């Protein structure tokens, strides 16, 4: 009699293992086809039920194509590397060495009087009013500091608006140096990488370092590894996973301090950890993407499922969210779509001369001609085109594109969220509210729509 429960348990465990093996095979097939289609060159890790079930490196480590990627290669991860300074600030806050209400002028001397009005909290939330770095002239940290000393005024009063840029990151790193008395890179290595067991990561790697992926464009031009701002951590898949686990498991920060840098200042904005959600003292979602020239990375963590997906590429195709969606669907046993080349690439250089109706007519024509290699099956192409128009202050064209997309994908909460955003930007609060409500009905987990509906209904 006592053997029956053990037999059932053994059968269940074998069933899970078989299912995970099947899922890994499907993910492998999907990723390899994506590589053959030219839409993924990079490294991928998939963990589910607290177990790494798939890890691979596929493609070339540099523009020559002669060096294959390995899982030991380090990648720049763009804005995700800003997590190290945000976490660093909160670590020092927890140690009582600084307060988020402290003024920048206390830690970075020689700045104009505006530094008396910016707090560390403003830097973390990108609400400081600082303009972005002058990338054309800045060649070093010293250049950036001098530009800030020469800055006569801010773009807006601190706390009154939002501007996501690297000037905020630069000052966070200088504050950490002032408080700790050590270079920022050393702080990251000793206080973060080593405690998390991230032994393979490199900060500010150069072409002389081994096993560093070099990014390149589709027309075979390599990116330089030089960055005017110092302090960028390049990671391997395993180290990136360790970092994600450290955040989810509160190994460096308390839940309270994690919440401070997980939630942004408002909808459609970035926080120090990108974005996510907590229930009580547990992280239930953490998502962050980053780009730097042709490097692109995406971290998606779902702790309740024990699930983490990490994608890193050195040949940016703008489709990491699409790859993630396919992987998530495979893990959940749902239908999934094979990632292809983004259809919006076919419109490159043309959108400035096309209005929305001309664009939609061309979309239909190209869909008939290129459906095998380019993705016309998802909402992403038109959504990205709509955001191109929105970003160029062509709001009516954006609305027309988004409206059409809602007819193509009436079950997608995301497309109604995009349409709501366009109407919100136009100032039509009634239609914005209607579309955000529709988005929320289709996707109850859309915290952005939830916050905006609450705001507009006030």
Give short descriptive properties of this protein.
458 residues; alpha+beta; Beta-lactamase; Serine Threonine Protein Phosphatase 5, Tetratricopeptide repeat; 2 domains; six-stranded antiparallel sheet; 15 helices; 10 strands; 12% strand
What does this structure look like?
By secondary structure, this protein is an alpha+beta fold. It is built from 15 helices and 10 strands. It has 2 domains: 250 residues, Beta-lactamase, CATH 3.40.710.10; 118 residues, Tetratricopeptide repeat domain (Serine Threonine Protein Phosphatase 5, Tetratricopeptide repeat, Alpha Horseshoe). Helix content is 43%, strand content 12%. A 6-stranded antiparallel beta sheet has the order 2-1-8-7-6-5, sandwiched between helices. A two-stranded antiparallel sheet has the order 3-4. It has a two-stranded parallel ribbon with strand order 9-10. β9, α10 and β10 form a beta-alpha-beta unit. The longest helix has 34 residues. The mean pLDDT is 94.
CATH architecture of the largest domain: 3-Layer(aba) Sandwich
Distance between the termini: 63 Å
> Strand count, sense and closure of the main sheet?
6 strands, antiparallel
| CATH homology group of the largest domain | DD-peptidase/beta-lactamase superfamily
When the domains are counted, the total is: 2
Per CATH, what is the topology of the largest domain?
Beta-lactamase
| Biggest sheet, spatial arrangement of strands | 2-1-8-7-6-5
Count the E strands.
Answer: 10
Q: Enumerate the spans where pLDDT stays under 50 for 5 or more consecutive residues.
A: none
State the shape.
globular
Share of β-strand residues = 5-15%
CATH class of the largest domain: Alpha Beta
